[in-house]
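From the shared-data thread, chain only:
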Amino acid sequence: MQNRPHVAWLATAFAACLFLTTVPAAQRGGDDTSQQQGRGRGGGQGGGQARDPQTPQPTGTAMILGQVITGDSGSPVRRARVSLSGQGIRAQRSTLTDDEGRYVFTQLVEGRYNITASKAGFVAISYGAKSPGRAGTPIQVADDQKVESKPIAMPKGGIITGIVLDEYGEPAPGTPVRAMRQVIRTGEKQLQSAGTDTTDDRGMYRIYGLQPAQYLVYAQPRNQGLGNLTTVAAEIEAAMQQVGQELGTTLGGRGGRGGQAQAGALLGALGGGLGQQVLQQLQDELNADGQTAVAYAPVFFPGTTSPSTASNVEVTAGLERFGVDFQLRLTQTALVSGSVLFPDGTTPGGTQITLVPKDSLPGLPGNTMNARASQDGSFSFRNVIPGQYVVTARAQIRTVDPNADTQAAAADASQAAGRGGRGGGRGGGRGGPPAEVLWALAEVFVDGQDQTGLTLQLQPGMTILGRVSFDGQQLLPPTDMTRVRVNLTTVGAQDAQFGNPPAGTIDESGQFTIKGVPPGRYSLRGSAQAGAGGRGVVQGGAPQAGGSGSWVLASSVVEGRDTLDFPLVIEPNVNVNGAILTFADRSTQLSGTLQDATGLATSDYSIIVFPSDKQYWQPQSRRIQSVRPGTDGKFSVRNLPAGDYMLVAVTDVEPGEWYDPDFLAELATAAMRLSLRDGETKTQDIRLSGG
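Structure, as tokens:
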């Protein structure tokens, strides 16, 4: 309570600053009026802009009929939402089942369609799927065909319920509780949110509609009303910085009228200085009171604050799991602060700083904190709960060419004249080369005591040099190599800590450069368009205009390893030279029909294609694919690199499980073998054995 007078005085200072930055519209030359008129013209009623007529959906003569039933008793599911997607429609269509659980889609053109059913309290499921979360069976329809599909059995969802208490054993209302399920995404296991709820006045929560699985369940307190003013200090700091910026911008912007420029800039600086003084005074008084910063940490079932030691909660279809309770814990928090420096020792303002806990699981949200360095390079994170953390910094700089403006203006004028005055360069303007990324990384252990004086020394990212090549039999290489796109993508969620890597630049000769690459694991990729005339066809041994097809990235080789198959590991202070991106105008296609033991087409299986060489059994491998046959038993797999493969049909498989080396090893014992040559189109039917 003794701090309240100072907060009230600070609010008065805010009011004075805001009064100074408020200028009548008449003195601003009517800017607000013109902006309001502009907003009125740009949206809402009376926009006055003609819209392009929407292209009508193609209509046909086929229809699909079906029924949705419960997975346990087989009774109809009324008012379930059934969605239809596929090749013959441009946008997803949906309808509701009637009292008998029936649905119908009409006016369909020939093609393959996927159907999904969903309803609150049930688990969404696709037509033909063995269980929720599995791939469904596409329905193949022909013109004038009436397809009566098998019933979709939609299981009732499971339920997790419990109560959340505070540190005194009293109900903790308004506390979010989340259930997360482990799935396989991009070839790696990670957590995915499956349901959330917020406790009521009794501290009770109830998460329903869960598919059978094991779940990580945790309570994430909001940390409101703890009576600690350190949070207030953080809000005041942000508000004062904003007031200082607005004060300097407004008064400085009105400078130049009667010699007011210097006065405006001075008052802007005084505003910022006043904010820093007020903030420092408030922080000193808070520290003098000896208050200990505390907060509620997330609690994972059965009562741990460490996600790695949490226990899973098993859920069964249609059943309720009681007693998943939590008791919140107040823990002493700390301040983590420091400064960030450029390589030359200067202090970069606006640098993005991130604090990431090490004791976490892939896909688990929360506890990651972000901040921006102030003008003097300082940064801080308040209310950090105990644990081991990684602190990363990321900044961008651009190399300014003094001749760039003149050269860009001349180039834009030349391009505008050549296009009949339409204007606009490639990519919507010329801003010079892409920004170069600087990075820094440090580890810090928080045990409730403030961690200050942390120094993050930014350092330049690494450089990747290489070239592009084109292996074409039908297409012409691009006439303008600068339009080829070269970029890096991170491999694995843990390697995205520095954000998106920078894009590459390429010259007319096909040589490319990627600067400022932070450490991590990457895949080097690219895209290209066809050359003159768009296409080319081989005549007399050389590509000529008029062919069909598109360029595909065939390989991305760095030091003898293809980064499309194996990650490119960028180490600190180690540059990469000699990378080669090769584009080709041909690709493979493997197709066939899945047949049962009697030779009839069947669709109740998943087809998995994977390489014979185990070194390619990697997460998100381009050489591993899974596909469900249509109701006609036909399947097709495209764009596999040339090589030796295994082909197998399985009755049930979890999405992404085909990237698991142990699972592939089991499949290899029953798989058939085949080879694909470069650009080959092969037909391979599969007949299931009687067993």
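Residues 465 and 513 are 5 Å apart (CA to CA).
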